[in-house]
Amino acid sequence: MNIFKSVLEVLEVEMTEPTMYGWFHIMWLILTVAASVLLCRLFKEGTEKQVHRIVFFTAILVTVLEVYKQIVYTFSITDGAITSDFKWYAFPFQFCSTPMYAGLLFGIIRKGKVHNALGAFLASYAIFAGVCVMLYPNTVFIDTIGINIQTMVCHSSMIVIGVYLLYTGYVPLKHKTVLKAIPVFAAAVAIAAVMNEIAFKTGLLETDEFNMFFISPHCEPSLPLFSLVQPLVPFAVSLVIYIGVFTLAAYIMILIAMLIKKIASKLSLKRQKELLNV
Prior knowledge:
Order of helices and strands: HHHEEHHHHHHH
Number of helices: 10
Radius of gyration: 21 Å
Number of strands: 2
Strand order of the largest sheet: 1-2
C-alpha cells in the first residue's frame, strides 16, 4: 500500500493549469505538426505492415495513458490515506475515446471492409475530434501535469495518425471515404446511447454524472447547437441529426485534405517547370 501511495503521489504531480494558447498549448500544437511531418517523411511508403504497426502501437500508447488517467481520477490521498471514488463522468467512451478503440481494432483486424471502415474513421471523424480539442482545449486542462500530457497525446495522435493515413494513400483521399466511416461512427453512437440508457435504468444518474457522447436524453443537453435541437425532436431523430452533423464535419476534413493535396501538387509542378527553365 505504501508503494502504491508513493506511485500515486508521483502520478498526481501538479503544475499551473495551462491556458489556451499559452506556452504548454502552443508547444503541443508545434509537436503535433512536427510529428505529422516526421511520420509522413520517415514512413512515406505506407506499407500494410508498417501502417498496422504504427496505428496499433499508437493506440497502445493512448490506452496506457488512459489507464493512468483512470487511476488518477479514481484514487486520491486524503489525510495521508488512499481513498477511491470512480468518476463515471470520465468513463472512457466519449467521442474522443473512440479512436483508441478503432486504432486497436485496426491493428488487429486484417485488411477488408471492417479494417477499411476503421481506417476511414481514423482519417475523417478522428481528425475532426482531434482538431477541435487541439485548437480549443478550453475544458481539458487541469492542474495535474500527467493528465495534461495524456489529453494532449490523445488528441494530437488523432491528427497525426489521420494525416499519415491520408498522406500515404492507405486511406484513399476520395469523397466516398467518409461514407465508409459512417458505420463505425454510427455504431459508436449506438453503443453510447445504450450505455446512457443502462446508466439511467440502474439509477446511476441519481448519484453520478454519466453522459457518453453527451447525447443522453436523461441529462441536461450541453453540446453547442445540439442542445437546442435535442429537446425539440424525438430522441431517435436527434441521434440522426447528431450523426449527420458530425459526418458533415468529417467530410469537411476530407475536403480540406483534398485542397491541400491539390495546392501542393500545383506548387510542385510549378517548381519543376522553373527548374526546367533554368
